[in-house]
Each structure stands twice: as structure tokens, then as C-alpha cells.
Amino acid sequence: MASNRVPSDVEQHDTLSCLPEDTNKWVTYASAPGVIEDVVQVIDHQAERALCRRFDLRLLPVLAVMYLFNALDKGNLGNAETDGMSKDLHFQPNQYNLLLSIFFVPYVIFAPPFAMLGKRFSPARVLPILMFSFGCLTLLSSATKNFAGLFTLRWFLGMSEAAFFPLVIYYLTTFYRRSELARRLAIFYAASNIANAFSGLIAFGVFQIKNSTIPNWRYLFIIEGTVTVLFSLFAYSYLPRSASEAAFLSPDEKALAFHRIQVDSSAIVNEPFHLRAALAIFHHPSTYAFLAIEICLGVPLQGVSLFLPQIVQRLGYSTVQTNLYTVAPNITGAIMLLILAFCSDATRLRSPFIVLGFLFTFAGFLIYASITDVHAQIRLAYFATFMMTWGTSAPSVLLSTWYNNNIAHEGRRVLLTSLGVPLANLMGLVSSNVFRSQDQPKYMPALITVAAFGATGAALTACLGGYMWADNKRRDRRSGVSVRASDVPTERLRDGPASEEFRWFL
């Protein structure tokens, strides 16, 4: 068996000829039968680390703040409801649940086309435009007079937020290697947990306003919508369209950035989007397994996001205290997300940590459902709400990272992400209809339903991960050499599992 000596996770590229040779790091990589031999090449690991730090400082804080406001504007309805929004707008029974449900219909319908536009015109331009749109809609929500007006605004809010998270994921895959992605996405996604906590703090502060001429929940929409609009204007001028157009990089750094993505993220960097080529992703059975896991993830994810204030309210706190007591579970959810994501990148494993997250979800909802007297076991009941947040954040990030790691074709990657993420959010239709007003304050049917989805998600993830491990072993036996997924340059993997060299990123 012929073998080459090449840098781990990389492949030769002409643009790296300018890099210094005093930082050579070599490992042995053996090619599969029939594959053309690579030549020896060099990589400067110190330059890579410096480049990643620059991306981290320039991109992640802005994207995290953008997603924070995205989550605030989507989830503030629950906070407004605790301040009597339904009563002020004269809602009929279950109309509040309809408001929650209608959001997810356009959210799923418009995610793929908007994501394709983002691929065409660059996420750096489309993301701020989407942010400006949902900020304006949040502002308009403060002026609604009845159910019909708020119902209409929630429809358009779902449209404007549809492709936001999928485009951020795709955008980051154009800057980071596969093994670097989970922790960066986790830092970004942690903004969602912080947003839920921050939303509780904002609601706590706003609901302290006395002698106001308008209901305090309207101030919540005004404050959050205004800041969202202002920040979107800054983001439009700040985000680089791509690494090659980033003004803060030198020519050598731009060359290195291109090389990193070419060999450890995309088969063809900045490949134009072609729908027919992208649709080939549905020829892979693993696609349907990933989507099924997204469905199982979506129910607990949306259940916690939309109904955590109502779950905490069962503990007997006042409106103000209820919003305040949602802060700690969301903060610890963000911390657990970061812990699992950093561990996942360190071990280069995704599926075991996704399973662990699902088990947290299952345990949290099951414990909460089993408590008959929350006042006698209030500490255990409150701890269960922490486990709920631990088990919803991490699987969302790691699942998106998992299938992006296994797809080198940029068009297929953005298409699957634009379907998978909204599909998980579509499960808000299930969550918003199992948390029924007639079941409060315990919501027993909802708790059992969410726990069941958590258990199913853990089982499906374990099965898919086991299949990938077995398939990698089979491919190793066929080629006569043991190869890790990170050892194969992604520019060879445009055809996915059809390639002899393909290895699953577990």
C-alpha cells in the first residue's frame, strides 16, 4: 500500500508556498486504492491559530449578539403573556397557542429559499437584512390592538427569522475547519440561552414600571425591537462577505484561510449554488436519519423555549419572580452547551454528546412530571428545569455540526441545514399544542410527550452513530488501511459516501 507524508487534516495547495518552513508538522496518510498520490506539503500551525483568533474576535461576538436578538424577538411572547397580554387583547381560549403555532409555518416554508438567497448574495448581507426585518416586526407588535393584528405580525416574523440560524451555520463553515466548528457554534448558540435569561431580566425590569399609560408588555416589544434594528445596521457594514474579502486579513492570511476550507470543510470553496446538485443530498439515507433526529430535538427545544416561564410558574411564584427564576436555568444551559461542544471538538466525536443531551432532556421532564407536590419538593422541581435546558441546547448545536461535518458539497450543506433547523423549529407546533391551558399548572400530557421525544432522539442518534462507526470499519477493511474522517481532504469528498475515501465524522 502506497503512502504519503502530509500534514494532518490538510492537503497541498499552491497558495501556501509563502508560508515559513520552520513549523513543519508531518504525519503519515495512506491513500485508498486508485487514488492519485498527494505530494508533500507544509502548514504553519502558529499562523492557523492566529488566524482563528482573528476570526473569533471579529465574527463570533457580532454573530452572537445578532442571534441573541433573534432569540429575544422570537421568544418574548412568553414573557408578555405572563404580564397579561392575552387579557389586554381579549384573546379567546387557545388563541395564545395559535400565535405560537403560526410562527412556525412560514418559518419552515421560507427557510430553504431564503437560505439559497443567502448562499447567492452572501450571508454577510442577507443576515443583517433579516435582522432588520424581524426587529421592525417586533416594534410593530407593541402597537397591536387585537388577536388578528398580532397573528399577522407573527406570520411575517416567522418569514424573517426562517433562514437566520441555517445561514449563520453555513457562514461559519466558510471560515472554520470541521473540528473547530462545534465550539464556535456553541459560543454563538449560547446567545440563545443567554437571550432567554436576558429576556427574563428585561421582563423583570420592565414589569416594575408603575403608573404607565400603556401595558408594560408593550414596552418589552419596543425596547427589544429598537435595539435589534439599530444593531442590524451596524452588522451590515461590519461582517465580511468571505475570508478572501476580509479587509482585516493580509494576503497571506487570505491564502491560508482559503486553503483551510478547501481541505477541511468544502469540496469547492464558494461554489455557485445549483439546485439540482444540491437536491442530490436526498439520495443519501443518512439525510432522513438526521431529519428524524431534528424532529425529536424540536419538541423539547421549543417546549423549553416557549413554555419555561409557564413551567416555572407552577412553583408558585409571582409574575415578576417567575421571569426572574427562568434566568438561572438558561444560564446553566449555555454553560452545559459550551462544555459538551468543547468536549466534542476535543474528541472529534458528535453522536455521544448528542445522546447525552437527549438523556438530560428525558430525565428533566420525567423528574418534573413525577413530582406531585411541588411545594414539598420545590428544590427538586426547580433542579429539573435546569436539566431541561441542559438537554435542549447542546444537541441542537452538535446535530447541525454533525451533518455539516459530513457534507463537503456547499450547496447540499446549506440545503440540508435550511431544512433541518426549521424542521426542529416546526415542532413548536407540537409543543404549543400539547401545553394546553386546561392542563395547567402541571401540564402532565405535555411533560410526558416531551420526555418521549427526548428518549426517541437518544435512541435514533445512538443507532445512526453506531451505523457510521460500523461503515467506517467496513471501508477501512476494504481499503486495507485505517483512516480517520479528519485525514481525508474535503476537496476529494464532493460525492459524499459514494467516494471510496469517504469516512463518517462520528
Tell the overall outline.
Answer: globular
Helix and strand content put the structural class at mainly alpha
In sequence order, what are the helices and strands, one letter per element?
A: EEHHHHHHHHHHHHHHHHHHHHH
Q: Indicate the CATH class.
A: Mainly Alpha
CATH topology: Growth Hormone, Chain: A
Q: Tally the helices: what do you get? A: 21
The biggest beta sheet is recorded as:
2 strands, antiparallel
Based on CA atoms alone, the radius of gyration comes out at 23 Å
| Poorly predicted runs of 5 or more residues | 1-42
Could you report the average pLDDT, rounded to the nearest whole number? Answer: 84
Helix content bin: 55-70%
Question: Ends: how far apart?
Answer: 26 Å
CATH architecture annotation: Up-down Bundle
Please provide the count of β strands.
2
**DSSP strand (E) fraction?**
under 5%
The total number of structural domains is 1
CATH homology superfamily: MFS general substrate transporter like domains
Subcellular location: Membrane
Membrane topology: Multi-pass membrane protein
Pfam family, one: MFS_1
Keywords: Membrane, Transmembrane, Transmembrane helix, Transport
